[in-house]
Amino acid sequence: MIYTICLGSNERRAYYLDFARKRLASLFPEIYFSPVEETKPLNMSRPALFANQLARFSSDYTQLEVEAVLKRIEQEAGRLPEDKEQEIVKLDLDLLLCGDCVCRPQDMERDYIRRGLASLDAEESRR
Q1: What's residue 42's pLDDT?
Q2: How far apart are CA 93 and CA 116, in angstroms?
Q3: Which residues make Cβ contacts (< 8 Å) with residue 48, sequence separation at least 6?
């Protein structure tokens, strides 16, 4: 199955995205990434910019297994439930697509997601 995910962070953005990329690459060696894009926060009062990046990989894992891996990596990065109240997002990993199935339809409308998908599609065609 081909999976497409979104990585996001508004706290020590470069550090936590790098952490996620390394952990993901250790689990999914054929993973590839879109360029990082900074965006303003959505529905948050904290003005810290977000760094966002998409990634695509193939795996025999089920959708539930991939989602569990993403949550485990978030926890390894130190994401805490109490951070949500302070609008601190050390690392947010969301499953966007599972094959052709859209897992997060609301996210698919965002411009940075569309640009990231186009970048991944271009990279895929070069492979």
Answers
A1: 75
A2: 15
A3: 10, 11, 41, 87
